Amino acid sequence: MKFEYLVLIAVALAIWGFKQLMFEIGRRLRRNYYRNTYLKSEEWQRKRYVVLKRDNWKCVYCGARATQVHHKRYAKRNIGKEPIKWLVSICQSCHDKKHR
Fold this sequence. Notes:
Elements: H1 2-36, H2 42-54, E1 68-71, E2 87-90, H3 92-98
Antiparallel strand pairs: 1-2
């Protein structure tokens, strides 16, 4: 009886570890695609321009000249399909503070 519980616990831990591993692999693949493909695409450049123009090229946090666009949220499954309202114009200084 005790051995069966130990086997059951070992199997549960193995399944949990496998799920964690698969999640991490997927996360890395999504992050690499996002950084190396999507942010270099024309689609992102157009979306970035629309957001900067909407916010009048000013940082929404401090009012300085905005040079970047910050994601308030990310589309988990559909990278690049985030709505414009999830994006804000931001200066380098505020962007660095957000990502600390």
